[in-house]
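User: Study the fold:
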Amino acid sequence: MIRLLLKWIAALLYVLFIVFLVGLVVFRTHGFEGALIVAQGRSEHWVARPHEKDSLFSFAYRSLPAELIGFDNPRAVLNLLGKEESFDAEPLPFSLHLEKTEVLEKRTDTYILEVTYPGKQLRLEADIGLTVEIPEGVLKVQAQEPWAGLVRGSEGRPMAAIAFQDTEGNWHPQVFASADESLHPLPGVMALLRRFPDESAARSAFPEKNEFDREMRWGIREGGRIHWFNSLAPGTGLTRSDGVEFTLVDSIASRRGETTHLVVEKKTGAGSSREKIPANRPSEGQDILFERHDNDIVFLMHAWSDGRAWVAPYVSGKKQPETLLREGGSLDVRLDGQRKLCLRMDHVLLNAVPVPEFKDGVKALVLETPKGVLRLREGMSRPVQETRVAYRRQPQPPPVRYTLRAVFGGEEPPLEFTLQPQDKIRIGDWQFFHDRENVHAATIAVLSARHTPGTAALYGALILLGLSSAGMLFARFVMRKKAFRATQEPENLEGWERVSKMTPDILGRGDDTESG
């Protein structure tokens, strides 16, 4: 009985192995998994993935360039799937049209600080106050702020993006210094950028005494611009396009000889009038300006190439040693007592176009490093000796609900359905569900698509076939054995004699063939 049972189990395992092997071959040849990418209001009927070398037994189109596949919206597919050299692809027996997209939740982006040094790579959320130990010392996140900076442009001019930390320790917003135009970022502070042909000329051009102790200029508004005059000589002026004539008549000085006011004559068709303009305050009509700057601290910046400049500070007219500042470097100027003023060099370009900050625009990370304060723009990486730091924005994919329509041509009516983030929808042999990493989900749907050969009815039939095979094997090995025993040993043995009793009589008669 045990031997019979073992034979039956072995035969059953053999049948199941053959069924499994056939199913595996069918699945490998007809199964496919890829992505269907469709933009809002568009349709797509191709499922694709970058070419896989181990898909030798697949019946899908293999190793095709994108031009030969014929995507319905190739721009969206190539932007998200990547510009690979070749793709594996399989067409759907229908087209999927993206009717509507509903964003269920808006998620804020996260910002990542990447720190890489020999033997270590860290990816941390760039929270304010975060500290990271590196071989050179400690990194500390000081602030996250809107980015404004310089970009290279053929029509640009020499510029530097700089920022100042006042004597109270507060950092002020970044400002742009243009070549040969004085900049006044803080009261009593002036910065001036000048361009030179080479480093030697840049370093040797610093005067021993400050030439910019005091600056004065006056101007006239016309529309969105200001006409500036650096001369305070009487008679200076102009006539605007509206016919109004402005002429500088006189200047008024204090007892110490400092010019505090200007007197300007204004002539119109109705007559003329004189206005007294105070320093650093606009006139009553807001159309005449008088600027006077007493520069206690002056920074002269001499640039000759991108990314660096020699900087010399002047305090109360006296020159301090010049310093070579590269982008990200800073220079501290000691004042009286414990006070100090810090200049940070963020960017230097000889052909620059300024980019102001925008709401919800590019961000910058202010990072305190062993080499000084570093300002990292999104996507930028900088070295800190052997350590490299990078600041990156990591968009968070929004959860969305899609309304799609499957179009089968003229064979059957279209099928419209909604696809929630957690849903899986099956249409024929194809199953679709959300790609959770799609950061463009609000405008472009990326659906993971899986082709599974056969339907539920087919797999049910296979199960029934297996059960039937098991039943036939059972009948083959068990029922047949019982029938064989029934023919060999009948239940009614009356009138039968055993063979052992008849044997002597048979031997005594001998063989008829030999005796004959």
Observations:
- The radius of gyration is 44 Å.
- The mean pLDDT is 81.
- The helical segments are 2-30, 66-69, 74-81, 199-204, 456-488, 499-509, 512-515.
- DSSP finds seven helices and 34 strands in the chain.
